Amino acid sequence: MRHAAKNLPFLALALFCGSVTAAEEYSLSGEWYFDVLTSPNGPGQREVLFLHEESRVIGFIDSNSASGRFVGSFDGENLEFTAVLEFGGQPMAAVYQAKVNGDTMSGVIEYGLYGQATFVGFRGRRPSDPLPPGAELIGSASAANLDVDSVGEFFGVSQNRVLLPEMIAVKGGRFRMGNNGPAVNPDYGKDFAHVHSVEISDFQMSRFLVTNAQYLAFCAATERKPPVPPKGWGDYLHLYPNHPVTNVNSPDAEAYAKWLSTISGETYRLPTEAQWEYAARAGMDGKNYVFGDEWDVDGANISIWRIGHIPDRDGWKAWWDNEGNTMSKSQPMTTRVGSFAPNGWGFYDMTGNVWEWMHDWHQADYYEVSPEKDPMGPPSGEEKVLRGCSWYNKPDVCFNATRDRYAPELRLYYNGFRVVATAVDGLH
Question: What does the pLDDT read at residue 22?
Answer without folding.
Answer: 34
